[in-house]
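To start, an entry.
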Amino acid sequence: MKNIYTWAAKPAKRTLTVGDLKAAKGKRKFTQVTANTVEEADAAEKAGFDMIISNAKNVIPVREGSKNLFLTAALVLNEFVTAEDIMRGAFKALENGADAVMTPRSMDIVEMLAKEDVPVMGHLGLVPRKSTWIGGLRAVGKTADEAYELFQKFKRLEDAGAFSAECEVIPENVMGEISKRTDIVTVSLGSGKNADVMYLFMEDICGDTENPPRHSKAYGNLLRLRNEIKLERVKALKAFKKDSMNGKFPGKKQSSNLEKKQFEEFLDQLD
């Protein structure tokens, strides 16, 4: 456990720092999962994950759930639009307890943040919200030319000052060769096992997605449990209504009465 000062100038402990991640590149694997609630963050820490990533707006509850894990705050495209929005959002997330920020924005934006010593994770490969530019949702780097162009983007991201990159749906062998040739800590989301960090969404790992992506794997079945809860809720409501209509509810256990003498006095007062 490492002692740090947060961006709010408060002492804290972390299982990892940016320095640790950079020093361990190519030497060991790490794991990352999304967490956007107190409960999810607590589960990730108890499960022994190394890193968590949340939407920037959820940093406070996530940090409440996990005091020590390395936390990256995602600066969602449509929530942080201008350069000023991004800078303010980044510093607010760090002040609230994040250790880094993730942005899928331009190299100029990454450089702007990095120049202020903000630890930045970029986003390369498939960026779903920008998928119209590549003909829809698909792997990126599926031809030699496209793979080399992707490699050049990694080098530009490195030059812009990013310490890490979310690498989404890149062919495994391409990811492996790129990761060996960059100092960036590579975080694989559907990009095989040759990156530095293995990453999936919480809902995909826990089986809480109706149509999970091909690159995911469910290790639980929360969706079944949620559906059972929905059915049980309707069942209970129907039973209550039925008992209410036929006079079975409320019963003796759910009701009380004045004792006989007090009730008779009450009736006399009414008359």
Observations:
- The first helix runs from residue 18 to 23.
